[in-house]
Structure formats: C-alpha cells, structure tokens
Amino acid sequence: MEQIYVSGLEEKAREKSIELLNARLLDCIDLTLAVKQAHWTIKGSSFIGLHELLDAIAERMRERSDTIAERSIILGGHTGGTAQGVTKGSQLEAYPQDITYQKDHVEALTKRFIAFGKNLRQSFEQADEAGDDDTADLFTEISRGIDKDAWFIGAHYDEAAANTGR
User: Fold this and answer.
1) Phi first, then psi: what are they for 76, rounded to 5°?
2) Quick check: helix, strand or coil at residue 45?
3) Which intervals hold domain Ferritin/DPS (predicted)?
C-alpha cells in the first residue's frame, strides 16, 4: 500500500522539511544534554536557583525534541535521535565536561542557546522557501522559547561572575 502523508505537501517540500527537522532534533537533544550536564555539575552561590532553572529548561527541551521528532515522523521521515546520531550530527559546539563554576556554565549554555536559535531561524527560512508553512511555524515557535531560555540563563551572568571572582 502506498504511504499516505497527512500533510499533503509536495514531495520536495516534505523531504526538505524532514532533513531540517532531523538536523534540529539532533541539536535539540545535544543542547538538552548540555543543560543536564550543567544542572548536575554547577557550583556557586546561586546553585539552587540555577539548578532548578536548568531542570525546568531541560524539561522544556525534551518537549521541544518531541515536537520536532513527531513532525518529522508525520511527514514520513525517520529520526536519528540516538546518542550516536547526536554525536555525529549535532551542529552545536561540544559542551565542555570539565567546568563547574556558574559563570562558565552560564557562558557556555548561553552561547549554545544562541547558536541553536540561529539554526532554528535558518531552518525556518528554508522550510518557508520549500513551501512548508507548518514546519516553518514550528521552528518559529521553538525559537521563541529558546530565546527566552537563553535570556533566563544569561541573566545569571553578572551575579555568577561576581560570586566566583572569575
């Protein structure tokens, strides 16, 4: 039986959207793991506030991953969201595993959230050009949340820098 796709998109648009969705899925999973790494290892005077914030952000990131993966599957794609897939395919800079100070985590996370937001906006443009308004809208929605979380994390920078003396 021929596969019927719910979206009704042209084949070329569907294939492009699947490619974009899968690329952003790998970034999203990678960023989620970076947030959890920081959550587990962060130290400093604002520990509990940042620890709890990062846990909440990690949960939002998992929801974003689900949304991205489900859209890819709806369009007839396959996801590669395994650890091996993320290692090979994420376009984000690897997260340092040897940092513990608030200032360092805040800098590293904010930098990666900004990069992921940029990737999302580029994917929005490409999905829009391909004719997939729904996938473009998904990228826009997620980018708003990523920008907000980058702001939440980045807002801790001055305090973290002052408290660590670094």
Assistant:
1) 95, 15
2) coil
3) 18-159
Selection from 24, 54, 23 nearest residue 40 by Cα: 54
Which spans in 42-156 are helix H? Answer: 47-74, 83-89, 102-130, 133-154
d(CA 81, CA 67): 13
User: Domains along the chain?
Assistant: 15-164 (1.20.1260.10)
Residue 85 identity: G
The pLDDT score that the predictor gives to residue 158 is 66
Contacts of residue 5, Cβ cutoff 8 Å, sequence gap at least 6: 14, 74, 75, 76
Task: Write out pLDDT tens, residues 124-155.
Answer: 999 999 999 999 999 999 999 999 999 999 99
> Is the pTM above the cut of 0.85?
yes
Structure tokens at 9: 């998109």
Sign (positive/negative) of CA torsion 55, 31, 149, 163? positive
Q: What is the DSSP secondary structure assignment for residue 43, as one 8-state letter?
A: B
